[in-house]
Design a protein that fits this description.
The protein has 139 residues and is α+β, with helices and mostly antiparallel strands. It is built from four helices and five strands, in the order E-E-E-H-E-H-E-H-H.
């Protein structure tokens, strides 16, 4: 089985470690008996991801990534381990896809001459209105 990230990038299942653990929280006796939560571990440095992805993942400030470069995801939302497994894999894929997307560089712009003139005219007009409201004094 392979986790597909994009057309060119995929992760073989031997690189992803999935360990069933006991879930926390409500669930009655089911929580005490069954290990339905999934603990996913993915080592970025040892993976077959392209270097671009690895570098971006290492620099990403995310609490799920340790200092050693291991992604740890805990999935315990659902009652079955199968659903939790797919949830954990989807979250890993989303994390890697997020890193692949490069935001467009912002080009700084300046307001046009007409826009600056319009702004100054509105300020002048507002100033005149306020001056007209002042108390009239004989000088």
């Amino acid at each position: 089985m392979v986790l597909v990230i994009s057309h060119n990038v995929s992760i073989p299942d031997i690189e992803i470690e999935l360990v069933p653990i006991r879930a926390q929280g409500a669930g009655g006796q089911n929580v005490n008996k069954v290990s339905s939560a999934i603990h996913l571990r993915f080592d970025i440095n040892k993976s077959s991801l392209p270097d671009f992805y690895k570098e971006r993942l290492r620099t990403l400030r995310d609490r799920r990534i340790t200092n050693e470069g291991i992604v740890i995801i805990k999935a315990q939302q659902h009652r079955t381990s199968g659903k939790n497994k797919t949830d954990a894999l989807e979250r890993l894929a989303a994390l890697i896809k997020q890193v692949a997307h490069t935001p467009k560089k912002r080009t700084p712009t300046r307001p046009s001459k007409c826009a600056r003139k319009k702004r100054m005219d509105s300020k002048t007009k507002r100033s005149r209105v306020k001056n007209m409201r002042k108390k009239v004094t004989d000088s």
